[in-house]
Amino acid sequence: xxxxxxxxxxxxxxxxxxxxxxxxxxxxxxxxxxxxxxxxxxxxxxxxxxxxxxxxxxxxxxxxxxxxxxxxxxxxxxxxxxxxxxxxxxxxxxxxxxxxxxxxxxxxxxxxxxxxxxxxxxxxxxxxxxxxxxxxxxxxxxxxxxxxxxxxxxxxxxxxxxxxxxxxxxxxxxxxxxxxxxxxxxxxxxxxxxxxxxxxxxxxxxxxxxxxxxxxxxxxxxxxxxxxxxxxxxxxxxxxxxxxxxxxxxxxxxxxxxxxxxxxxxxxxxxxxxxxxxxxxxxxxxxxxxxxxxxxxxxxxxxxxxxxxxxxxxxxxxxxxxxxxxxxxxxxxxxxxxxxxxxxxxxxxxxxxxxxxxxxxxxxxxxxxxxxxxxxxxxxxxxxxxxxxxxxxxxxxxxxxxxxxxxxxxxxxxxxxxxxxxxxxxxxxxxxxxxxxxxxxxxxxxxxxxxxxxxxxxxxxxxxxxxxxxxxxx
Length: 474
Ligand code: NAP
Description:
Layout: H1 2-23, H2 27-49, H3 58-77, H4 83-109, H5 115-120, H6 128-156, H7 169-189, H8 196-214, H9 222-244, H10 247-270, H11 275-280, H12 293-296, H13 305-313, E1 317-322, H14 324-329, H15 332-344, E2 348-353, H16 363-370, E3 378-380, H17 381-384, E4 393-397, H18 406-409, E5 428-433, E6 453-457, H19 460-473
Helix pairs in contact: 1-2, 1-10, 4-6, 4-9, 6-7, 6-8, 6-9, 7-8, 9-10, 13-19, 15-19
């Protein structure tokens, strides 16, 4: 009776995981999606805990307690802007756990723990399918572990955010990748008799490839890399499912693996870069650069808060374009407050949300939701791009690349072809940023030098708070 009930619980959990992913496709249903995923995971964990194979509960209880304490403390303390780092950190441990399970299972099935250990295990001996699953599990799990640690280090600034490149790096990485696949092939061909060192080399190359493949990628591309590593962790978990004959791990791992891969591809497309360019292109640092000498010599309209406030007061329609700078300065609550003051003044305020604004998917949506900005005032690129030409004022809050008109016209630009907002078509544009520095892509922005653009330089949150005060004072 117990086994059919466990299978039923796994089926319910799998359906909840699929519904959770469905919910995460829109901000309105996002919270519900997360809740469904959590309930699904709880059911899956409880069903696993009543399995016959569990020998003792002491270590599981200790791990659960310690993990829950650390996880809760981390989640309560980490701010929203540090979310990519937090995700990289947890992927690292997910990858490590998967790799360790694979190492233990391999040693157990090959009888390398000694006779006593074999006696307490249900089976001894290793099939080709199990060997293949263990090989991929350990390889992808160790790669995810070290790759995620490097991604975390780059985002945190512990390791340089600039791409670290060396001669022949892609050839070395590709060679190591295919060499490891060859070794896994040998392990599959001789599951019972392959020399032990082969398995150890698969672990070692997985660990080394994590370092070697992520070091050459620029810090600001880390969100795409983290999403890719997420998919590796999912595939590793899926392989664990085959090795341990666990249907729930196979399903959850496959969902994780495919959704992570799709997200990486969607993010690359939204930046108009090929997936290969992100992974092998050594592009982008974490921080922007000073403008080029040519741009630095050009004049621009530097405006005061008072000038900007009077333009906003006189506007009937305003579109706010938030970007990475809003996240850095944590200006979302101030933006909401300013929008409230403008709306009281009879101004229509809408928000234009670019798919790659900020540094992670949905970055702007999450921040604006935190400040209780109504969902129905947020517009995607396609929904709002034609409206800029009949809008009085665009307020650019710490955005740069996503409002760069050069992406439409400058064929030499690294962001040429990336879809951008037509902000320059509005009657007036107010740009809030600290300096004339570039954004993520490191390219100058023509928008800042146009006659209808006012640059209000300073931290976005402070500037917006002053703007609010001015607008309210009327
Ligand atoms: P961006 O091009 O990186 O520009 C952000 C701007 O914010 C900078 O120019 C910076 O100028 C300003 N800034 C920083 N701190 C500020 C503060 N405290 N107050 C005011 N301004 C501040 O950002 P974006 O327009 O959002 O574009 C995102 C870029 O990241 C795109 O190129 C995208 O392809 C890339 N990317 C996105 C994702 C994703 O998933 N969203 C993932 C990977 C890469 P100052 O230094 O002068 O202040």
